[in-house]
Amino acid sequence: MIELTYYGHSSFLVKINDKKLLFDPFIRPNSKAASVNVSDIRADYVLISHGHEDHVADAEEITKNSDATLVSNFEIATWFSKKGIQKYHPMNQGGSKIFDFGKLKYVNAVHSSTLPDGSGGGLAGGFIVEHSEGCFYFAGDTALTYDMKLIAAEFKIDFAIMPIGDNFTMGIEDAIRAADFVGTDKIIGMHYDTFPYIEIDLEVAKKAALQAKKELILLNIGESITL
């Protein structure tokens, strides 16, 4: 079993045994996450899917406060190294690495990626985390892509954390198809309702998932669940 805590937008803290993985921390600039105290967050690893501000805003602070290792693509990892992050691990599409929490694979995502200062953020990606308790997929910001079928060919995915907000990423219908592609019936929704562009009808999303025989989990900010 692993514990997952939602900090809003696409920010999740996943505890695997005694290791904590923080994905795409965007908390302080998110008014909906005002109840979350960034200063209290500690992680062993900070994983960044792509360079947009709404995925990296609190990464530097939390990484430094935690003495964590920042993991992302080469461009993003080296960009943070120039901001004083001493522990970082660069990856790129298709690459895998064994860490002390398990195996991490950086996979394709279809999305743009520019860092807050306008620097190129390389190619956007997602993460497969295979660990002693199972395996999950953090999609990052992405469109539906046929490459997702390759994930099911290599991994047994217990659940997938996927964007459902539409407009900039997949909406719920494509997320359901993506879940089919990667071979899971459990979707944890992210990247919705933070901004007007990605506000959605949650009841419609829940109904679509139910009709497709998928479990759609929508967490409240600050809520934790065990999976």
Automatic annotation (TrEMBL):
Q: Which residues form the Metallo-beta-lactamase domain?
A: 8-191
For this protein, the record's InterPro entries field holds: Metallo-B-lactamas, RibonucZ/Hydroxyglut_hydro, UPF0173, UPF0173_UPF0282_UlaG_hydrolase
Keywords assigned by UniProt? Answer: Hydrolase
Hydrolase in keyword set = yes
Q: Pfam families of this UniProt entry?
A: Lactamase_B_3
Q: Does the keyword Translocase apply?
A: no
Family matches, as Gene3D superfamilies? Ribonuclease Z/Hydroxyacylglutathione hydrolase-like
Question: GO molecular function of the protein, one example?
Answer: hydrolase activity
Q: Which family does it belong to?
A: Belongs to the UPF0173 family.
Q: What is this protein called?
A: UPF0173 metal-dependent hydrolase MM236_01225
Q: Which organism is it from?
A: Belliella calami
What is the phylogenetic placement of the source species in the record? Answer: Bacteria, Pseudomonadati, Bacteroidota, Cytophagia, Cytophagales
